[in-house]
Amino acid sequence: MMAECLEKFTVSLNHKLDSHAELLDATQHTLQQQIQTLVKEGLRGFREARRDFWRGAESLEAALTHNAEVPRRRAQEAEEAGAALRTARAGYRGRALDYAL
């Protein structure tokens, strides 16, 4: 009688251990897939932010060069170059924050 009860108890415990092991394996597999997806998407976003950052840097450099080359006696052209420079600086600043964060 006692041996039968102990045998049933052992079988039941082994079944629970097997169930827990399966659950643990399934959870690890799911988490691994989700982490890989998250990392992949994060890297893609980082690459895009880096590309945008360098485009902004090139745009700022072009605006700086143009602003430096404009003769100041041409007020209208100098004003437009200054406005373009301010716009390029603001865009570069935003892209730099996106890239850094």
Automatic annotation (TrEMBL):
- Which Gene Ontology terms cover its molecular function? GTPase activator activity; zinc ion binding
> Can you supply one Gene Ontology CC term for this chain's record?
endosome membrane
Q: Where in the cell is it found?
A: Endosome membrane
Which keywords does this Swiss-Prot/TrEMBL entry list? Answer: ANK repeat, Endosome, GTPase activation, Metal-binding, Repeat, Zinc, Zinc-finger
Query: Which InterPro entries does the record associate with it?
Result: ACAP1/2/3-like, AH/BAR_dom_sf, BAR_dom
Q: Tell me where it mainly resides.
A: membrane
Domain BAR intervals: 2-100
Q: How is its activity regulated?
A: GAP activity stimulated by phosphatidylinositol 4,5-bisphosphate (PIP2) and phosphatidic acid.
| Function according to Swiss-Prot or TrEMBL | GTPase-activating protein for the ADP ribosylation factor family.
For domains, the record's comment is: The BAR domain mediates homodimerization, it can neither bind membrane nor impart curvature, but instead requires the neighboring PH domain to achieve these functions.
- PANTHER family, per this entry? ARF-GAP WITH COILED-COIL, ANK REPEAT AND PH DOMAIN-CONTAINING PROTEIN 1, CENTAURIN/ARF
Q: What name appears for this protein in its UniProt entry? A: Arf-GAP with coiled-coil, ANK repeat and PH domain-containing protein
